[in-house]
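U., I forgot to send this yesterday:
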Amino acid sequence: VHRELKWTNVIGGPGCRVAVTDRGLARVLDRPAHELLESFSGTPAYMAPEVVTGRPLPVSMHARADVYSLGVMTFELFTLRLPFISDDSDEMMKLHVNEPAPIPSELRPELPAAFDAVILKALSKEPADRYPSVAALREALLAAREESQRARRQARVLIADDDADFAKLAADLVRHALPRAEVEVVADGSAALAACDERSFALALIDLDMPGMNGIALTAA
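Result:
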């Protein structure tokens, strides 16, 4: 168990390899140890609640402090801020113990909501409610990424082009890139505007030169 995971203890290298440094507080769990999570120094912004309070825990639960710290790092990576903010170290530790973490996607609306439950589970106050290991947290993050990608693949795409051959080519390319997307093809700007009035589209591919309402007028409308 590392026991002080934070960004200044992580180094990124070539090939996306990551190294964790500063093992001054680390402990090997399969060696005899007391059931208490003994007190130790650390960084308040990344401390798990049980570390702050010195709460007695079985040795099997000690690794979940690392899960919490990694949850804080993940929250910070995805939202560009810490879950709890204070200039006072004591107040920061109290926030970790008592206050629920904000919902990540409410701070960054462009963040897929699929990540919310994963990050908040890692930041659970109760160690038993967190992921059992950082490997399990990693798997949950990968699953959330796949879910968010799947949601994007199900988006609606509008193609407006008076050239039937080019419109078919564009539609084929979109369906290849986004197999589950719903693709609608129209032949002019007026039809495209009518389609947009009826339903929402995540993406629109618009020919600039069309009879009637051209692509510029359509985009403005």
